[in-house]
Every structure is written in structure tokens, then in C-alpha cells.
Amino acid sequence: MTTTELTPEQTGHLRHFANLLAQPANDWSFMQGKATGQDDFGGYRFQLAYMTYAMALAHQHRLPAAPGVFKPLIARAIEKMLLPEVWIYWKDTSRGGAAFNAHLSDKYQEEYDPVGRDNIMYSAYVQSMALLFNYLFDDDRYARPGALSFEFFTPFWGGERKRFAYDQNSLNEHLYWLMVRNGFLGVACEPNCIYQICNQPAILGFRMHDILTGGSVAEEVTEGYERAWADFGRLDGDGRYNMFVFEDNKALVPNAGRWPWVDAWCGALMNMWNRDFVRSNYPRQMADLVEPGRDGTISVNPGEPFLLAGNPVIGDACDHGWASVWASEMGDTHTLDGLLAHADRYMNPTWMRGGLYYPRNDRVTDDGGNRTMMEPVTGNVLLAYARLNVPDGLWKLYNQPWDREHHTEPALTEVDPGVDVTLAYYDRTAGELNFAVTGEGRVVIGNLGHADLVVREGDTVLGRRAGELRSEHPGLRANAEGLELTVRDDRPHRYTVTLGGTR
Hints:
Elements: H1 8-21, H2 44-61, H3 67-81, H4 84-87, H5 90-93, H6 120-137, E1 148-152, E2 162-166, H7 168-181, E3 193-195, H8 196-213, H9 217-230, E4 244-246, E5 252-253, H10 260-270, H11 275-289, E6 290-292, E7 298-300, E8 307-308, E9 311-312, H12 319-330, H13 333-346, E10 350-352, E11 355-357, H14 376-388, H15 393-399, E12 411-415, E13 419-427, E14 432-439, E15 441-446, E16 453-457, E17 460-466, E18 468-470, E19 476-478, E20 483-487, E21 493-499
Antiparallel strand pairs: 1-2, 3-4, 4-5, 6-7, 8-9, 10-11, 12-15, 13-14, 14-21, 15-20, 16-17, 16-21, 17-18, 19-20
């Protein structure tokens, strides 16, 4: 846990998340990438999932006493994740006919259920997002039967209304048995293709479920994964992460194009459970991906054109974004700072409605040869993730979870949308909640019980409670949850709430 305030850039990224998540259902402004539809690495599901992961990391490591900031945002991300626009691509993808499964197409049928078969590139995100929500906020709303339901109906095609009902536990169980069926090698994304990358989020979900239930499924799955992949090797002959294995003939597909996103994405996620292996290979792998520029900037070499069956694939690879995320997870400050410096100099950082993002740009380089391409998943999410993360952030989330006492400690349990929280942590030893806010609106301070306490802004006492709250401050009052504090001007405010006394 850090006890320093968020930077303006970090605060701006969280505000941009909030802006995107506040858009009405099926308003995907600023989120559409180059590819047709959502069957692409930059699809809405990836943006929503890694937005959630970034917020989970920011909550646990930077603002642990601010559930009121993150809980409504992650709930909205899950709500949007269940919209048909996010997953309806699967009815077409499930039929096969692509370069890697055309010979099996007569065995496939059109599926509307987006988590029933294959499609781990969607199902694992729903599973892990719901279980992260339960872990982070001690709220099991997605464990209720049917809480994760996929519903679709249009009067123009598709037949009768469709509804596929799951919850976090039934979905977790379903993915586990899909893993078992494949000998823990993993579950396919598009039919017949078992990617290393796309199975890592399911492992995160299994771990969150274990934390909640006391189980050991994640350990079983990772041990089985190690045995299964030992037959193929996680790395190819060049020391890069292998891309995937064909389910039918178990042929291995290496990273033939030396694409940076393969190594960076896989390494950033796998670090959560296989840190020694990832770290032992990282320096050499990252050195092959990046190129130093002027004045400390660093950019990413995109590798060869991405071809399938000899045809270029038009989509969002997100090389710069994934390299930044990987460097942040590895604690490689030099590389991360250089990648962010390049983005800030050449990739048009933009402030909009208080939020910071990097707008889509399909141009590969500027006139000076500096890389300028920007995809929505990088500009909206991955650079934000990299800035909000801490070294080994995902590893710590996986291996050093909060104890049960955390959820009973004083915290900001509600935060109005107009308020940005830049600091929020509870010091158990001192019995003191520290938080800082900017903006205008209301925050609720909960989990205070009946303890005597003092509220200060800086060195100024705003109120004392010994039985009842005594305060002449117009913005501080008692409520059913504890205390309610209203900030009425848009300047920084830093507060402490000290429990156990009134001096």
C-alpha cells in the first residue's frame, strides 16, 4: 500500500474511466477500434476488463480506504460487460471457418451462449471481474442465481428471446471443468486455439474464488498448467512466449512475427502466479521489444506485419500499451518512464471532462518517424493501468490479499461523482483514516462504529464525537452510516479521522 497522493495524471485516468462508464448503454464513444465488430484484441470486453483490473490494483495498492470510489465503477463495468454488443460476436465466431479452424467447421454450430463453449477470451473476464468485485467490496451480489445472465433479443433476427443464466460460482465451476477436460492446457478462445494469454484471467478468477471460499482451485489449475505446457514449452526458440496450441492436433504456434503484445501481455499477467519464471526472462525479452529515443523516451518495435493465411489482420495489437503494463508490473521504472514519456510527447495526451486519455490515431508514425499509432484499449485503459499499478501489483493482489478485518475498517463508503479522491488509507496502528479529495460533492465516512473520534482538515479540528458529533463546520454532519462530509469548493482538501479519543 502506498501512502502518497495520486498524481494529476493518475487522477485523470480514473476520471476518464468514470466518464466512459457513465455513458448510456451501448454508447461506446471513444472505444471503437479499427477492427470490424468485437472479435479483436481491442474489443469492448478487453477495455472493460482491464479497466476493472486497473481499478482493482489502484484500490488495493493506492486507495484502499476508498471503496466508495471504485465499487460503483466496477459494478457499471460488469453491467456493460453483460450487454449483447460486447459478446454477440460469438454467434459468428463459434461457427468456425477461420484460418485456424476451417477444417473443423462442419463440427461446430452457431452458439449464442457466450460462455458455454470455448471463448475464454470473454468468459474468463466476466468470471474474474465478478469475483474481484466480491473480494474487493465484500459484496456477493454476483453469487446470486442468475446474477450473471446473458440475454439477447431482437425482432429482426435470431429467433426467440435467449437467456443464459450464470452466477460467479456456477461460471467459475464451469470454467474449471472446461480446464479439466483439456488436461489443464487451457480453454480455447476462438474454436481450436488455446492461447496462453487468454487463460491467465481465468486463473486470477480461480484465485479470487479461493480467497473467498478457502479453496485451492488456482493452485490445482496452475500446477496442471505447468505439467501440460511442459510438453510444449512456454517459450519458443527465440525465447518469446509461444502464442497458442491447436486443440485438435496439439501443434504449437510460436510468436513467429516477434509481436511485442504476445510477450508483454502474457508476461504481465503470468507474473501473478509464476513470478520467478517471468522475471528470469523479462530483461532479455523486453530489450528485444523496445527502442530508445530522444531525451529518455522509449518506443516499441511492432515486429512483422500480422498475417493470417497470408492476409494482413486489421486490428488493435496495443504494443505500446502492453509493454507499459508489463514494465509497471516488473517494477522496471526506467522502461516505464520512457514509454510514458514517449506517449506524452508523441501520442497526444488529452484532457476531457477532467479525464486523461490518448485519442485513437491510426497513423503509424509522424513525419519525424516517431511512432504515433494509438488504439482505444491503449489510450483509454492500458497506459492508465501502467500508471496506476505498482511493482508486482498483480502478484500482490494474487498472493497478498486483504484480511477480513479490512472490510470493517473506517473508509470512504460513498463518494459523489463530482469528487476525486487522491488519498485514502487507514493506519491500524494509529487508528487514523487519512484521505484527500478535490472537487465538489459529498463523501460518506463509514465503518466508524460508536468510537469517539476527531475530524481534522490539516491541523484544524472540524468536529469531535463523544457519543454525539459536535461540529460547527457546515459541511460535516452525522448520518446513519457514520459521518457525511460535503466539499463545497474545487480545491484540494486533506483530512484525518482519528478514532479512540476526542482531543
